[in-house]
From TrEMBL:
InterPro entries: Integrase_p58-like_C. It comes from Furculomyces boomerangus. Pfam families: Integrase_p58_C. It comes from the Eukaryota. Residues 78-109 form the Integrase p58-like C-terminal domain. This is Integrase p58-like C-terminal domain-containing protein.
């Protein structure tokens, strides 16, 4: 533009087409980058799988609506028990009051009861270490 040549700080003097070593290096790094992108995309598109009879929590439907909702409401409802798997990653779940509902797997998370969480912890040993109690 206006017949002025661009003055760049570094001229591109490397000619990759004429240098086979640089070409091999470029191709090897591109293959590695392509594989890393494939791995990340596979992990993000994988849907959750739940077994029949397992307990799950369901994302509260009101949280994604435009209607104002109290922030103090629990984010998940449940626990529900999975009764069967339907097509298109849908699950039929049963509540404790025996109501049957259908939800997509993206709205479900695995439920861990407090008793199963407490089994994994050794509270007595932690108290002894922390407070030097015999």
């Amino acid at each position: 533009m206006f017949e002025v040549k661009a003055r760049l700080p570094i001229k591109n003097t490397l000619n990759i087409l004429n240098n086979p070593e640089l070409w091999k290096y470029k191709v090897s790094t591109l293959v590695g980058l392509r594989k890393s992108f494939e791995e990340t995309s596979k992990s993000s598109t994988k849907a959750s799988q739940f077994e029949i009879g397992s307990k799950v929590l369901v994302l509260r439907p009101q949280l994604r609506k435009i209607v104002p909702v109290s922030k103090l409401l629990p984010r998940y409802l449940g626990p529900y028990t999975i009764q069967r798997r339907l097509s298109h990653n849908l699950y039929q779940v049963e509540s404790e009051s025996k109501d049957l509902k259908v939800f997509h797997a993206s709205r479900l998370i695995k439920f861990f009861s407090r008793s199963t969480l407490a089994e994994g912890w050794r509270v007595v040993q932690i108290m002894r270490i922390r407070y030097c109690v015999n």
